[in-house]
Amino acid sequence: MDIQATDSAPSPTDFELHAGRGRFNASFFRLMDPYLEWTLRRHKREVFASLPHAVVEIGPGVGANLRYLPAGGTLVAIEPNRYMHGRLRAAARQAGVGLDLRERMAEKIGLPDHSVDTVISSLVLCTLQDPATVLAEVRRILRLGGTFRFIEHVAARKGTPTRAAQRILRRPWAWTFEGCSRERDLEHSMRAAGFESVVIDRYRVHTPFLPFNTHIAGVARS
């Protein structure tokens, strides 16, 4: 995989984050990693099975998916929250994975066209300002036949208690979790993004965090 940047690195102002929320999310996901892994493990094992030596991840956070990369592999990490970086570096060392950490937004990944075999994400597309632009970027950098593998939470069906909870908690949830939206139809976004094929599994997780219960997991192929 050719991981040279196609343009100069953006300035720090491109990543202006609320410091308090950035630190909170770094701590929250570090502490919640065992629980989230237990909750999502079955689908992650299926979607992230047999990852190649080099992988690009959008929003790796504190490194929850490093356990699925082969030892000695390389992760190109697109992570704008600098408060995640220390734990991410430590987790990469522990996993024996090389880390190419890039502090930039997923709307402008900065890798060459058709240079990547695999891109992954988990619990990330909900936080992005423009998922369609990000999916276009993923398509741009993937080689012919390359895959985008994802685990994401999505909007529940209209009229259900879960959808009502997602709507009621919309603003406090988004404020706490850096813009996270519980009401996005990401399955439609995936199918509309122009991939050659998209395979999606819809499922529910069993957790007391009701707005978090509805998920999709799948593979989009370029």
TrEMBL record:
The keyword Transmembrane helix does not apply. Residues 56-149 form the Methyltransferase type domain. The lineage of its organism: Bacteria, Bacillati, Actinomycetota, Actinomycetes, Micrococcales. This is Class I SAM-dependent methyltransferase. GO terms for biological process: methylation. Pfam families: Methyltransf_11. It comes from Arthrobacter silviterrae. It comes from the Bacteria. Keywords: Methyltransferase, Transferase.
